[in-house]
Amino acid sequence: MRTCRIAPSILSADFARLGEEVRAVTEAGADWIHFDVMDNHYVPNLTVGPQVLKAIRPWTTAPIDVHLMVEPVDALVPAFIKAGADIITFHCEASRHIDRTLQLIRDGGAKAGLVFNPATPLSYLDYVLDRVDVVLLMSVNPGFGGQSFISSTLEKAARVKEMLDRYEAESGRRIALEIDGGIKPENIAAAAAAGVDTFVAGSAVFGAGHIDGYRDVIARMRAA
Ligand code: DX5
Ligand code: ZN
């Protein structure tokens, strides 16, 4: 069977009840918890750091997927690993030494991922695939939840999927292909058809209001 992971983004959760929200989406069927970190420097918005990650860690058994929208990256990596990150992804443009940052994350025992904005070229992957566990394609410009899906990401996803399939045939190792931004039950099938296996959804999941709504949206995404 094909891999299909749904990763609700806490950006659209009720921050006053974050632990309960994380537990609710886990019970509603989330595969990963997507944790958006913004610094008002790399992106024009500000969210949360390692202390909040540490606080929500006991509320879920699902892997926590930390999406760093920060610059610089390296100095923050150890704190997020210590706080319980399972996966850490960062943006190509935000690290001066991508190879080093990937290695830093993996040396700390987490999985490492590289994030591509809608206009970021895929050539950043050329010499680092063997150090990458996740490729995350942004289908919106990073910084805010609730934006509309940028459809050129589908063609980009299909190109990455080809690269990852070729790499798997050579190495026997599967790299995850994740998409983030504007994903909903209505467009998730197109992303899956392009080869995406991991789907971040913030407003679509948390906009459903409560645990029954979360369960219903996650089930509809998986079915689609
Ligand atoms: C955007 C964040 C996304 C965002 C997704 O910068 O990285 O994870 O929360 O939210 P939706 O699903 O509402 O586009
Ligand atoms: Zn994100």
TrEMBL record:
Q: Which residues bind substrate?
A: S9, H67, G143, F144, G145, G146, D180, G181, G182, G202, S203
The record's cofactor note says: Binds 1 divalent metal cation per subunit.
> What chemistry does it catalyse, as a reaction equation?
D-ribulose 5-phosphate = D-xylulose 5-phosphate
Q: Which GO terms describe its biological process?
A: pentose catabolic process; pentose-phosphate shunt; reductive pentose-phosphate cycle
**Gene Ontology cellular component?**
cytoplasm
Q: In which pathway does it act?
A: Carbohydrate degradation
Q: Which molecular function GO terms apply here?
A: D-ribulose-phosphate 3-epimerase activity; metal ion binding
Q: Which domain of life is it from?
A: Bacteria
Carries keyword Isomerase?
Answer: yes
Which residues of this protein are catalytic? D36, D180
Q: What CDD domains has UniProt attached to this entry?
A: RPE
Q: Where does a divalent metal cation bind?
A: H34, D36, H67, D180
**SUPFAM superfamilies named in the record:** Ribulose-phoshate binding barrel
Q: Does the keyword Endoplasmic reticulum apply?
A: no
Gene3D superfamilies in the record: Aldolase class I
Q: Which Pfam families match?
A: Ribul_P_3_epim (PF00834)
Stored InterPro entries: Aldolase_TIM, Ribul_P_3_epim, Ribul_P_3_epim-like, RibuloseP-bd_barrel
Q: Which family does it belong to?
A: Belongs to the ribulose-phosphate 3-epimerase family.
Q: Give a short account of what the protein does.
A: Catalyzes the reversible epimerization of D-ribulose 5-phosphate to D-xylulose 5-phosphate.
Provide the protein name. Ribulose-phosphate 3-epimerase
Source organism? Sutterella megalosphaeroides
